Amino acid sequence: MDLRLALVKSSFKSMDVLASDELLRNGEEVQQVQRCICSIEVSTNTSNSERLLNGNTSSYWQSDGTCRSHWIRLRIKNNVVIKQLSMNVSSLDQSYMPQLVSISVGKTTSLLKEIKELRIPNHVNGDYVLIENLTTYFPIIQINIKRCHSDGCDTRVHGVKAVGYRLRAKDPGLSVADASAVWFIQLLSMWITSVMPNDKTLKRKILLRTRSALTHMQPLSLSQASNERPYFLSKNVLKEVDNFLTDVVFDSTGRVVPADLDILLSFNMARGSVKGLISTIKVLQNFPDLSLSCNQLMTKMIKSKNTALEKQSSSFYLPLCGCEGGQLEDKSKQNSNNSSSSSNTTNLRSIQVYLTEGRKSVDLFFKAPDFVTLTKLMIKVISGSRGSRQGLVFVYGDQNDFCQDDHVSKYSAYDEWTQQDIQSHLAQELSVPYSENDPVAAFHFEDTWDELEIPVLWYPEGKFVLVKFLEPRSDTSGKLGVKSIQFSGFHKKITFSRMLPPQPLFNPKKELVTVNEIQTLILNFLIDLAQVQFSTKKVNRLDVLDVDDIPVQDIWNLFRIYIKEENFEKAGALIRLLHCLLPVMTSLNEDQKAAIVDMFHYLCQTLDNQCDNTNPMYKMIRQLIYDGAAVFFPDKESRGSKLLNLMDDVEKLIEKPSVQLVFQSLCQFYTTADPMSLLYLPSGNLDKAENFDSQKTLALLENLISVIYRDLCDVVNRNSTNDQLLPLHNLFSSLQATVTYWCWQHLNSNDENSKAIAKHIFLRFSLSIAQKVEEAFQFLLAKKEDVIEVLPKLDKLFPSLPFRQLLILLSSTIEVLDPESRCLLLQHFKPILLQLRQLSLELHELFPDLSHNFWVNENKDDVILKVWQVESPSCYDSKEQISQVFLCPGASKMVVNFDSCCETESRFDYLQFKDSAGKSFRFHHKVGMADWPNTFTFDGSSLYFNFKSETGKTDWEYKFRVTARGSADTILTWPYDMLLLLTKFLGQLCGSTMSANPVTGKTPIILLFDETSEDLCDSALWTTIFRGGYVTPIIQRSLSGNYSTDSNPDVLHLINNMNSAWNWADQPGLGQILLKRCREHCKPQQIGGSEFDQTITAVFSALLWHHQDLREELENFSKCYSKYLFLIDCK
């Protein structure tokens, strides 16, 4: 629970408002920025400054100047306010580690002002926060390193990170320059259009000059992401140019000469305009038999698309799933299997394949978890005869499980390709394949080449990548060696791919291209770019496509035409395009909304009338509706009302597939995108919120609780889950987290009215859930015979998942509640604890015994939890330092196995490890010697590694494997996990309520607790009582009874008398007399009533009973008191 609670607290902090409403000016909005630094400067050693931003903490920037003169200057991106700035340091740097650091900010380097000075402790490893929560934009932030530990001269910094936000103003409209240009173009257009009817040659001259100019403009060259676009050609100016060309191409009656359509096509491709290209496709639909001489334009379009995709791609990891043509070395297998742990970019390291006799080619198969699009590869081969000579790359999809023999036979025809075949393939420069099985790339290594970047010729989507190495450089070599393969491209998490495999769309060598080919190429062009632009969008990246004013009506009209013509390939392409454009279709005008409504009704009817659920079109439509709630229900009120209506009558969900899908779509939208709007919760100060009614929020939540409670009862009675309502349970969890965070935020505010409203919502919501959870366990107890069988099906339902989530959320909000609220939560959550206790008695198999015997008999096998493979880089400079942290929570030890070939320069190059306790170990010279064993074990769950070189690269450095070992996790049922969470939560409530001490004031109890808590927790007395039988040095008796000694019956009688109820009017017993004297001596604070007194007395009795020394004192006291009574009687 501690880990889960820490994550919740961290989430609450990260969810906190980046900029309050008071800071926002009219028309501004908040945009979070992860990459805030545009450039970096350093005081010295400028060649290594890029290491501060490369994200690799094993590298570092080291200064080279006079003492206390080092600085790092960050230039921040325009209008970005820094939320957090941190610096990565290492304690292993010793005297190079910064100690005293100051932060200066300003607009220029000459106007820097110091705002903070701080000291970095010498035990810190990793990111150390320098500043947080700035409220003003500073173009320059400078880190001044004033002193290093041990008065070191130079300093080392392993990285700098900054996270911030931008207050982005909305589009202010036309600028003066744009207005002037638009005005001029409009005047020109009016003059030309008025003159053209009288001058028949003017139109042809204009189109001729326009066509000539467009031949020099590549597709996307006028897009916002292009560096070639002239500055004066802004979006507004280009729109006006588009209007002008449209007026020229079309006559007054709307007719067009088909041969002139290539002008509109070229111009809209250069702009990357979705609206313009869709409009052109619509016009081309009127000329089905037309063929245009635009093959060069189509080829340029595909090449421009590929270039844009390549620029925006990133490296990704693909695991090796098969090898054909030889046998992998054991070490290579092991290395490749664990490569994911060591690197995300190097996908394969040091593979050695023993070639099968009679074969020269080797096939390496890689499998992606989802669809991938490959843009390029980086292959490194081993030098010499074992390196690869040439090869091919394939990307393909396969719905079946991986079967190596089938995949090998599919591409076996390429095994005989020669160098001439590869050169001929590369010379074709294919942008569209002739066959699905065509290679996407081919490569050839010269004898002196060991590394090669390989571009991809065309970009299909697939789940498998095959790299086929055709032969080693030497015919006599029995091995083929590959150092690394690095993939670049995109992951595409989609549920549908193209309806049909890629087909030969056109021949680049033929002059004319048909309308059908043009339309298909344009649609695929838009789909590929839109997928990248909106699903893998990078921060602060300019858009490739112009998506202003999406032509929804044109897309809907084209879709109906294609369906009527049974052209399902193009209809499916339009559905995919709409799916890609969903993020930018949330602000539609009335005409667009009307088209969306018509389209939505048609898609729902298609789903309801479709019998074949495996049809690709059916899958595309389902995905479009599921992800399009914000588009198909653009109005917030109607969207929320639709969900509430469906939620009130869940029986309707089984009537039609479209109703089920709409319900799931709305639940998914409010779960992930906008839960605040469904809850009617305002943002900012509640005093400024007009017409806010908390009763609407509470009524919605209570209604939702009732629905998921009824679903629980139905699942238990039917012994089967209702899949249609699973999204509703996820929605409730999201709303629960949102309302808890909202209340936590306002309970932390200074406004008393906001606090009162937040407290009311928080308590009523929590108590409503507690009441339903109590009813749920009453129901489960009544159905205890069926609970064991149905229990696994309840894991994601109410109350299993929501109530456990609530307990974790409540634990993070206890600190902001007043004592009255805490006591109220205690009263209403206590019955649930009693019911769980009763459930544990009735169904004890769900609740493992926590006694000492359970942990003694619990499986403590030493299992492998995680493995890392580490190897020195191929080359590095002298005085290089490489660091890495190995962390595995729950591990008891880290085992390091060194390769037998490890060898370093004695006393100069060494490997240093630091375990969890901070103990440092150093190894150098050669493995197998006394001071460098083959295997070394470190205690703890973390290990810090540092390699330091003073001499530069030798023949061998290091290679080792780190294995985290420990006990396997104990699998707990959700009722038992809930019992533990609830017990801890109630304990936190009790502790925080007693700490608040509303009766006697805080100061005396807090001081007493602060002075004694540490000693009490460290005391063996404390551990003896509450650790349940764990061995401590002085233990004589434990709660489990495993350790015991003979006890004096007089002492036992004294203890029992101390805890017995008695009347002070009667003669007290010995234990009661002792208790009275102790109270008179200590004069404790009187808190609570008789139940508190009984509890404190019981704990005090347990302390006396379980501590041997105190028990012996009780025996002596009992004997002395007996002698005293005997003497009294004698007198």
From TrEMBL:
What the entry lists under InterPro entries is as follows: APC_su10/DOC_dom (IPR004939), Galactose-bd-like_sf (IPR008979), ZZEF1 (IPR040099)
| Gene3D superfamilies, A to Z | Galactose-binding domain-like
Q: Which Pfam families match?
A: ANAPC10
Q: Which residues form the DOC domain?
A: 10-189
Protein name, UniProt field: DOC domain-containing protein
